[in-house]
């Protein structure tokens, strides 16, 4: 599975790939990027993507692989009831990952990718009652549209799925898993990853500011609303010819630092 490049720039992202292969390549890329930007948690946490044309099936990493080892051809295909459809490495899928991700794919068919992390900054913010504080421009991207789900222990109880999707709601793409970590979702892998990259930075800044113990400059609520709307407008502009332009930049990075993702 290869990308066509022109010098340093991706010009035709999927020249010969089927629709499913395209999703596989993007999903594997997201795993490598999470590893590259130091947002992974050993072999734990997950990124999943719906199989094109079938909302009952989704792709996820083989259980036991580090994120930087994930390859497009080795992703596990599983249905929303937990049945393994295809498992090239015979490694199965993490049960906790299945619970969380199947909930999203089953209930929110508008979302094609779900990304979950356990980072120091993300878990720290998820442990605060305040959640994300509107204290800087980056944070205002998440001034609205963020849901929270109360911690219920390691996600092995399938009954939790109903409560999780109820807390997420019908339109939000950001979910703080209280005392646990972060989730972002998108209509494609690029959107879900970009949201997580931005959210992680917001959490890092917030914890750094709080650690300073210094007074925070307040931002007027009307400016918070305005900036949030501006971020939404930029998000629309970032889609070009069906591709997320920031995602293409990340793929160019991977071509240099971790090209095995597309195998």
From TrEMBL:
Any one GO molecular function term: actin filament binding
InterPro entries (UniProt xref): Aldolase-II_Adducin_sf (IPR051017), Aldolase_II/adducin_N (IPR001303), Aldolase_II/adducin_N_sf (IPR036409)
Domain Class II aldolase/adducin N-terminal positions: 25-207
Coiled-coil ranges from the UniProt annotation: none
One GO BP annotation of this record: monosaccharide metabolic process
Signal peptide: none
GO cellular component: cytoskeleton
Pfam families named in the record: Aldolase_II
Protein family membership: Belongs to the aldolase class II family.
Protein name: Ribulose-5-phosphate 4-epimerase/fuculose-1-phosphate aldolase
Top-level taxonomy: Bacteria, Pseudomonadati, Pseudomonadota, Gammaproteobacteria, Thiotrichales
